[in-house]
């Protein structure tokens, strides 16, 4: 029995879904299923009940989950203590400017509780670099939003948030209960500067080339709408300032909150942060 296989098992046990667990582990589903079957063979009993209704833990699986979590935590603790002895006691986190995500606050509390002696440094960036300085190696890990060019990066999705159109409160479209992108086709949009990641630019412009004022930060987006009556996408749960409103756009895919880091970076402090973030960013009921 390997620690890696135990991690696979815990991911399936927590997600109760092989597809979601595979995505969380950054692997395809067939090797994950094979690893679980091998583990079941080693223990001589089924760990999960699989049916059309979903996946549930068996009694054997529940016992293994209770034993596996502290074992994996201990293994992680060993890695971190060894890394600290080697001098790896600092982690730099990149975040997008004007982020007030409650998930980040929960993550900070949980991470500080687990790693009180780690020096956590925060680097805030504008909207022109969704990787928050990863490619220039200014940060170890980015808590950001997709999509962007993922070449050379490992990306782990934490949550998906609905978006809407940011409008002046006196805009005729602001009285609508919802909108489609076609309703905004003839409007001027705020846009990011030339050279911004094209996947990122395309998403926030609804998948179409747009014209309008250039912005680099959230406050500039809001001012562009307020002063110039332009439009653009924003998060539904971000309360707009006075004079602005947000209307859901039903044919826009949600904005994905992700953690990203450079492939090959094996700093155990990053592994621990991702593990804690997976829970911290989970939507609250």
Shape: globular
Q: Tell me the fraction of residues in β-strands, as a range.
A: 15-25%
Kindly report the spatial arrangement of strands forming the biggest sheet: 4-3-5-10-6
Give the rounded overall mean pLDDT. Answer: 89
Order of helices and strands: HHHEEHEHEEEEHHEEEH
Helix content: 25-40%
The number of E-state strands comes to 10
Low-confidence segments, given as residue ranges, are none
Intertermini distance: 36 Å
Helical stretch tally = 8
Whole-angstrom Rg: 22 Å
Structural class: alpha+beta
User: What is the makeup of the main sheet?
Assistant: 5 strands, mixed
Structure, explained:
The chain is α+β, with helices and mostly antiparallel strands and 285 residues long. The protein is 37% helix and 21% strand. The protein contains eight helices and ten strands. The protein has helices at 3-15, 18-24, 29-43, 59-85, 102-114, 198-204, 218-228, 268-280, and strands spanning 48-51, 54-57, 90-96, 119-125, 141-146, 153-161, 163-168, 232-235, 244-248, 255-262. Strands 4-3-5-10-6 form a five-stranded mixed β-sheet, covered by helices on one side. The protein is globular, with a radius of gyration of 22 Å. The two termini are 36 Å apart. The mean pLDDT is 89.
């Amino acid at each position: 029995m390997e620690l890696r296989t135990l991690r696979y098992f815990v991911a399936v046990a927590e997600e109760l879904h092989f597809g979601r667990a595979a995505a969380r582990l950054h692997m395809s589903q067939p090797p994950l299923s094979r690893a679980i079957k091998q583990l079941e063979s080693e223990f001589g009993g089924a760990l999960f009940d699989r049916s059309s209704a979903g996946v549930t833990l068996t009694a054997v699986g529940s016992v293994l989950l209770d034993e596996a979590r502290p074992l994996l935590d201990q293994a992680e603790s060993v890695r971190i203590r060894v890394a600290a002895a080697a001098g790896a006691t600092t982690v730099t986190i990149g975040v997008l400017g004007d982020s007030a995500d409650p998930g980040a606050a929960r993550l900070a509390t949980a991470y500080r509780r687990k790693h009180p002696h780690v020096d956590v440094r925060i680097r805030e960036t504008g909207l022109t670099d969704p990787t928050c300085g990863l490619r220039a190696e200014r940060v170890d890990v980015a808590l950001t939003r997709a999509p962007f060019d993922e070449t050379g990066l490992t990306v782990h999705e934490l949550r998906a948030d609905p978006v809407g159109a940011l409008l002046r409160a006196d805009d005729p479209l602001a009285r609508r209960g919802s909108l489609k992108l076609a309703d905004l086709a003839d409007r001027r949009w705020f846009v990011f500067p030339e050279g911004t990641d094209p996947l990122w630019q395309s998403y926030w412009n609804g998948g179409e080339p747009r014209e309008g004022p250039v912005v680099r930060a959230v406050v500039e987006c809001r001012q562009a709408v307020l002063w110039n009556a332009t439009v653009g996408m924003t998060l539904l749960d971000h309360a707009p300032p006075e004079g602005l409103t947000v209307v859901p756009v039903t044919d826009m895919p949600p904005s994905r909150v992700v953690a990203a880091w450079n492939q090959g970076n094996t700093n155990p402090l990053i592994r621990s942060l991702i593990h804690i973030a997976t829970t911290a960013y989970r939507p609250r009921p």
